[in-house]
Amino acid sequence: MVGLRVVYTDPAWAVDETGSLRPDRAELERGILGPGISVELGPFDTGYVLAGEQLHQAVKGADALVVYRCQVTPELLEAAGPGCRVIARSGVGIDNLNGELLRRSGVYGFHIPDYCGDEVSTHTLALLLALERGICVQDRLVRADEWGIHRGQIPRRAADRVAGIVGFGRIGRATTRKLQPFYRRVLAHDPYVPADLMASHGVDRVDRLTELFERADAVILHAALTAETRDLVNTAVLAAARPGTLLVNSARGGLVDLAAVLAALSEGRLGGYASDVFSPEDPNRSETGRRLLARDDVVVSSHRAFLSHESELSLRRRVAAGVRAVLVGGTPPPEGQVA
Fold first, then answer.
1. pLDDT (mean) for 150-173
2. What confidence score (pLDDT) does residue 83 get?
3. 15 FRET partner, CA 20 to 30 A, in 148, 165, 244, 328?
């Protein structure tokens, strides 16, 4: 085993608090991959270069790629060349892995679907409860010397309300356990999960997404982003929501039509929107996103629901171990395989 190369195109953990690239932070990966396998980081300017010739030159001849936000495209795969045997997604979700392309090309692809279930479910509850109790509005008012118990919207009693989850996979089920002490009832919509399994978690299955919005006072999105689910929450779906419904997105920005969310908030159809994810990723980069950020009934965070010291280390270890399994052992990745 001589001269094997693993290129991490855009690892978030290699950028320090000042925004500078720190290649020395890859010692964990080098230790797991072992001797004879070099670890390289993708091109970096003021941020990672995620497309184009500079990226393609960086991955040329790589035996493995690890992507984070970087999209796997025919051009990227062609640039890596025929020796590339595996592409790992450093995170949950396969929307940027291009599984069909990898299957056609005979390249293994995998992600780590369960490394941050506790973090994402906890973050989801934090976003939802911040909306329910008006925490962020009160925080801003008090800091602005506008102290007042009744300033901002008066909250409702969550114990009388119904919560709904869209997507009942690992994270949806973890969120359910944390929702149940706060809400009277939990519903779920997921066409790929049987009612019996949901019942075992104390959840009622709802077949139609519009019905979920008709019945729930708060709706949480935990679905994967696929061609089927892009803009899943749109004008037609939101029209079914009961006035004042809260919507929380901890999954993928592409699941919602932001313009439809903005309109529903303006009409009072939605009582609040909380999101950890947007498309584009920074909502300040779009006009609709900026209009949402100006509203008191919107709570946001910067795509960090997954984040804890423990989850980040676990993810890095498991990604490196999966890549090594392919390069050294010639075996498929042990988990999260998509191609």
1. 96
2. 96
3. 328
Cα separation of 14 and 7, whole Å?
13
Whether 54 shows a pLDDT value over 70: the answer reads yes
**Ordered domains of the chain (ranges, CATH):** 4-115+308-327 (3.40.50.720), 117-300 (3.40.50.720)
Distances, alpha carbon 156 to alpha carbons 97, 134, 136, 161, 236, in Å: 42, 10, 16, 9, 26
Cis geometry, peptide bond prior to residue 23 (ω within 30 degrees of 0)? no
d(CA 213, CA 217): 8
Residue 335 CB-density burial (10 A; 0-12 exposed, 13-18 middle, 19+ buried): middle
C-alpha 268/C-alpha 262 separation (Å) is 10
Q: Evaluate if residue 50 carries a pLDDT over 90.
A: yes
Interatomic CA distance for residues 245 and 236, integer angstroms = 15
| pLDDT at position 1 over 60 | no
